[in-house]
């Protein structure tokens, strides 16, 4: 029988299920107010492998939410080198320069999805600069900015809830499309 798109499933008397933990890598770049709120919102979700990345260990929440890995990275764009290309990213650092460098690095490295904190103005400025650097407009447009759901508000937790909702909806859509919908999916 053909492997069904959604598991577990019973097909022609056979029970199919995935073995082992199926986790989706999520990187939160920046442990400020929004980064900490994102980590708190995403931490309880068992299918996500959340890593909170920052340049300064003092910005990490104490205690760190259960299931979240902290990573100190003095050079955040360089830290992408060991990040899976099928990871999902939230760029919420304290610095527009770091945010821009991460967007540039992600476009070269590869990613499943990326969200950038900011405004339509920040998006337009970054897009223009990234195009000038030679990145394809279609690739740049895969980086969502702003993140969150405006109707929920601008508080860090409201932004985190909206951004998490967007990620979970994207993951559910890919799961419904089948096991090979996401690049690098197992």
CATH class: Alpha Beta
Q: How many strand elements? A: 8
CATH superfamily: NAD(P)-binding Rossmann-like Domain
Instruction: Give me the CATH fold name.
Output: Rossmann fold
**Nearest-angstrom radius of gyration?**
17 Å
Low-confidence stretches: 182-186
Task: Return the structural class.
Answer: alpha/beta
Q: How are strands sequenced across the largest beta sheet?
A: 5-4-3-6-7-8
Fraction of residues in helix: 25-40%
Number of H- or I-type helical stretches? 5
What does the main sheet amount to?
6 strands, parallel
User: What is the assembly state of the chains in this entry?
Assistant: single chain
Distance between the termini: 19 Å
The helix/strand series, from N terminus to C terminus, equals: EEEHEEEHEHHEH
Give the rounded overall mean pLDDT. Answer: 91
Q: Give the amount of beta strand, in percent.
A: 15-25%
Assigned CATH architecture: 3-Layer(aba) Sandwich
């Amino acid at each position: 029988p053909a492997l069904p798109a959604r598991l577990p499933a019973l097909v022609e008397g056979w029970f199919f299920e995935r073995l082992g933990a199926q986790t989706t890598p999520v990187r939160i770049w920046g442990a400020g107010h929004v980064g900490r709120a994102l980590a708190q919102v995403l931490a309880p979700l068992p299918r996500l492998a959340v890593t909170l990345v920052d340049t300064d260990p003092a910005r990490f929440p104490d205690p760190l939410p259960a299931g979240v890995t902290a990573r100190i990275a003095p050079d955040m764009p360089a830290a992408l080198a060991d990040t899976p290309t099928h990871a999902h990213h939230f760029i919420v650092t304290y610095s527009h320069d770091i945010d821009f460098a991460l967007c540039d690095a992600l476009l070269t490295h590869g990613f499943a999805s990326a969200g950038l904190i900011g405004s339509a103005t920040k998006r337009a400025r970054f897009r223009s600069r990234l195009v000038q650097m030679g990145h394809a407009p279609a690739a740049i447009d895969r980086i969502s900015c702003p993140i969150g759901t405006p109707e929920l508000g601008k508080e860090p937790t409201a932004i985190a809830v909206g951004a998490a909702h967007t990620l979970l909806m994207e993951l559910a859509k890919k799961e419904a499309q089948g096991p090979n919908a996401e690049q690098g999916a197992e």
